[in-house]
Design goal:
Layout lengths: L3 H15 L3 H4 L8 E8 L3 H4 E2 L6 H5 L14 E2 L5 E2 L4 H8 L18 H10 L11 H5 L12 E4 L14 E2 L10 H10 L4 H18 L12 H17 L6 E9 L5
Parallel strand pairs: 1-7, 5-6, 5-7
Antiparallel strand pairs: 2-4, 3-4
Length: 263
């Protein structure tokens, strides 16, 4: 498993190899896409990625310590020190295939116990609670080229998370539990807002976003069912937005229910 020192060293070498300082890399002409998934709550990182090989692990974790690899309910061995929780089989497969990198013990300076304040710092990218009103990802959009409606990012949620709020214009989309409006209703709404530049533009963007989300089979009713079904719908929609020729480059999704310590 890659430790933090190795990670930083390799990252530094990669920057040197390009011949460009880190700040200029954000301006590179690239067609890459970024998906950020925010897991809301307070997942126990020591339970997901257990340092089973540490001599103090079992003494300090007590009954919460996971079994060693090979045992009943044992961790999925990554190396001689770390192992994944046995329920993380898909992540283990991704890691084994070289498609996942796990960074342990990475945190902000925040040391209090409020989940909400902790999330605020993680999203605003500052050092203090409510220290900034915008999100670090929104600030990172500034050097990027334009895309769908000149908006380079989309939030797959009913409300734009702090992570994406700021001076840079972003869009949002969320599948409704209500039936989609028919063509006649949409035409009447378009006529009603025809002389309002702000609302007519927003309506056009919303309709374009829905057309992309509905492509190849549609998303109608995808918001029904459990959290897993809804998240699947969001992921499918994100893929369609990012694949669109003039679509956004960045997508942000949210998944709740990660207060694992409450169980």
């Amino acid at each position: 498993m890659l430790n933090r020192r190795d990670f930083l060293q390799r990252a530094s070498l990669a920057l040197v190899a390009t011949g460009l300082p880190p700040m200029l890399l954000a301006k590179a002409d690239t067609d890459a896409r970024l998906v950020v998934i925010v897991l809301r709550g307070a997942m126990d990182g020591m339970a997901m990625l257990a340092p089973y090989g540490d001599g103090n692990y079992r003494k300090l974790r007590g009954e919460l310590a996971l079994a060693k690899p090979g045992g009943e309910e044992g961790v999925l061995k990554l190396d001689g020190l770390f192992g994944l929780h046995p329920s993380m089989e898909n992540v283990f497969k991704m890691y084994s295939a070289g498609h996942a990198l796990l960074l342990h013990a990475v945190a902000s300076p925040y040391r209090a116990r409020s989940h909400f304040d902790g999330q605020d710092i993680l999203e605003n990218g500052g050092a203090t609670v409510h220290g900034q009103d915008d999100g670090w990802l929104n600030r990172a959009l500034a050097p990027m080229g334009g895309s769908l409606g000149n908006e380079r990012a989309i939030a797959l949620s009913q409300m734009t998370p702090l992570l994406l709020r700021g001076d840079q214009s972003v869009s949002s989309w969320s599948d409704s539990r209500l039936p989609h409006a028919d063509d006649d209703t949409l035409q009447r709404i378009q006529a009603m807002y025809a002389n309002d530049e702000f609302f007519s533009r927003r309506l056009a963007q919303a309709m374009e976003s829905q057309q992309i989300a509905d492509a190849n089979g549609g998303m109608q009713g995808g918001n029904r069912g459990g959290a897993g079904a809804r998240f699947k719908t969001q992921m499918q929609a994100a893929a369609r937005f990012l694949k669109a020729p003039a679509g956004p480059r960045v997508a942000v999704l949210e998944s709740g229910g990660w207060d694992t310590h409450a169980n």
